[in-house]
Amino acid sequence: MDSSPPPPGSAQEPTPLSDAEKIRLKRLAKLQQGSSNTSGETSQPTASSSKTVPTRPNSLPKTPTQEKPASPIKKPSTPVNQELPEKTPPKITPPTKSFEDWQNDIISRVLQITLDKSTAEKSENRLIYLDSVVKTLMEENPGMVSFKLSKSVLDSALFARLSIDPNQMSDSDQPPQIPLFDYLLDSWKRASEIKRSTRASKTLEQSVINERVGVIDTLKELIINYVQYVLLYPDDLPQIRKQLGPNQFVSKLLAEFDSFEGLPLDFIKELVNKVDDEGFDKLFAPALLGYSAQIRTKNILGMDYLLPLNSLVTLSEIKPLADKITKLRNWNSPNSNARIFEVGSLLGPFCKFSVFPTDEPKIAESYFANPHTKRQADIDSAMTSLRGAIRGVQQSVFKIFNNIVRSSPSSREAVLSYFAEVIKLNERRAQMQVDQFQVGSDGFLMNLTSVLLYFADPIMDMRNPKIDRVDVNYFRKSNRIDISRETKIKATQQEADTYFSSVDESASAPNFISEIFFLTIAMHHYGPLHSYEVYNNFIRDILELQKQYDRMRADQPNWAGTPMAARNEELLAHCKSQLEKYASHRIAHETQLLDQVYLDHSLKFYNLVMNWMLRIVDPTGKHPEKQIQLPLPPTPPETFAMLPEYIFEDVAEIFLFVAKYIPRAAAVSRDDLIVFIITFLKSSSYIKKPYLKAKLVEILFYFTFRSNDREVGMVTAMNSHPLALNHLLSALMSFYVEVEQTGAHTQFYDKFNIRYNISQIFKAIWGNHVHKEKLREESRNIDSFVRFANLLMNDVTFLLDESLRKLAEIHSIQTEMDNKDEWESQTQQYRQERENTLRSDERSATSYISLGNETVEMLVHMTSEVADPFLTPQMVERLAAMLDYNLKSLVGPKCTELKVRNPETYSFKPKELLLQLVKIYLNLCKRKEFVYAVARDKRSYDKIYFSKAAGTLSNRGLFSPKNVSELEKFVNEVEETIKLENEDEEELGEVPDEFLDPVLYTIMEDPVILPGSRTTVDRSTIITHLLSDTTDPFNRMPLKIEDVIPNTELKERIEKFRQEKRRK
């Protein structure tokens, strides 16, 4: 070097510093201040300063305090077995070198420098002789001719080594030059290795080890300080003109840790502890962004995504680094839509991995193309492998987020804000029409949901329940999740606005458990639950395309050889290709959506959600520790009513999805689900919208209709759980009535689907004697049960009428098509229209007949157990007329119009339907009210139909002689009653119109005046009408039975008329 620093403590005035050296001094001071703040340690300044080797504040740490020598007794690494001979502890020996000689050797080995010229010469250019340092020491110590490296000269020695200009060195007399960063890194590695071997020594006194380790730690810390310096200020020291500054560090950080190309992990940890925010931004931020950029182009097919993913997991375990991650500008990508956020935020690309064909179409093509040509075992194996890979990514991403959360309170807040931002940006996913390029991908949302589920694990642990720590007032205390525009479970918008605007300012902020709980719910809502809906629609599309393909194949003989043949062949090939593509896409969807490990995790969380909601409505607030008891108070708690409706709906949707596609996954949720469903079906006033309760019924339907009860045990639970035995049947009956008016524009058709589901549940529980007793108990409440029975009968009437009408239309079209000559003579347009009508009628017939069969079967069960409600004046004549009409349709003169090809394809089994109708007759045949009602049916009754029905059923082995005898006896009683009725009518003769009911045109027994229209009708007629429609039939104004006015004067006149006729 050009000049040497003055000796420490010299009286000589320091040489004035140049501007460049002043800047260098300030930078070093800044680095040391930053490292001091980070590490919490204060370093000792060196004793001297000079123009060339300026004093660097805090460049050396304090010498470690010498500890009292430890006992030389060595503890065994494993318990000593008394049967084995005791191991002799290693012998403690004094050091072979003095501390000064050891210190000189170690510093020389680590930094590859020496203060002895002959030693440098003997090293064959491996060691650099620091002539400038030696000259300075000679000036400070006149008379001394040899010097040793020590802790006191470390700073000046290393600075002198770094200040040598490699561009002016001769290769013949100096070691090969490398960039200063590489030199410092190699020095740190050598120091670390020496430290490990020193600490592992078994022969040195502990005090000697401590003293030596102290020197090495000081040396390593000094190296780390200069690493910062040469990276952040590369122009301050002479270097080889290659890659300089942060880039050379970043390139190594992006390589695998502890590899030849990469950096030792401990080195990274020590450097992180030293750098300040500015240094972090220059050194670590580019690498973190580099990981994000690397993984952005990867997918689950290759293994190359593992390096950046695992590297970030490892780095996030360094607490100071994890804390700084959230401070980076790309942590929460600002002013972006959901899709840009997914790829632009720092962790977004790590969360995007999926096997959804909309995200990664190559996966479906690579693993599941042409699935019909593959063995199922091979498909299952591929699905298992992909699920394992996705699960591994999810666990790794959780570790990253978890490490960040644990690094500091501010980082925890940043992570919560990140999740909230994802939710906010993806609110559009809940809309009916979604632009997929404006929202996050399915994989991204699924993976973040999985991350939140891992965070929620401690809450879900039933051994240590934390359900009480979920804040029911979360949405009043926090606006992290915006629910201002969300529909509430049982509140108007105005009520909700008032409720949420009245906030206690002194209330504490929500705890972390509450944050995770509600974020997990919201992420499910916009993530997996939307994916489930997309999958449902996708399955419907596949089924529709398959039907179209099958129709074209079936119709192929008709268009083969016509001008349309070429085009139709092309369409057929296209359909087949699409079906093959959809088949592979379906498997890809199911790989991720039907992963039972993921679903188990999700359902476990929703068990918590269900129990939390039940706890809110439980008057005791003790559920699930003490099960909720029914009935609940008529008005729900305000905290429940103000919850977003989607929380309740999502519970239903996720279990619906599971019930449809993978019912066995719900086994762990069975009892919690039963309690939840029955509670809210029974407490109907707690839920504003009927369609939400309909979803609860649909869940039970799918678990009874499709699943193997041995897998889930849902039917077993419905027939054994105390809450189900006490309340399920009455809840279903009440809801059967409620869905008559849902408020939706599709309510007429919705009610049949809902009631079909209810009929299937009834079928599953009908054999249980406890449920039968509950039915009898419910039937004692005549008013409510008659309303249920009336709607049941209305449904039977409509469904059977529509079913038979559609079958007659199908018969007509099929007959027309069977006449080939006449059919071919029709125009193409006419044939096309008739074929379309046929397909429409076939769909309608199938639906109506299926619904009708189940409703008739339910009526059979009901009349076998509880006849009285069906025999009330407002019910019995309608029931008799309905039965007679359908009996006539099945065995009367027009029954041949119901003959269609392949009737089983429409679920039409005329003999079974006939048997069910006759069973209802037999259930009621011993009651005089029923005999009289059948006798009064002049539109459809004919005794010959009963004879035909009995003969048909007997010939098929469906009717016993006893049944035939009972039916004959019933018909005889009806005939006798008809005879008496006819005699009465002859006595009455011509009846004045004012005595006749205006609806049924029968003589009134109890005339009443309707207050709105002032019309007089028979009481039984208006009661029957009000069972289905709560309005005056003559002016459509609201009407209750309590409002009608008895027409006493007319009743007396009718009675007087009867008496006069009888006297004559």
TrEMBL record:
One of its GO terms (molecular function) is ubiquitin-ubiquitin ligase activity. Pathway: Protein modification; protein ubiquitination. Keywords: Coiled coil, Cytoplasm, Nucleus, Transferase, Ubl conjugation pathway. Residues 990-1064 form the U-box domain. Residues 813-840 form a coiled coil. Belongs to the ubiquitin conjugation factor E4 family. This is RING-type E3 ubiquitin transferase. It comes from Gigaspora rosea.
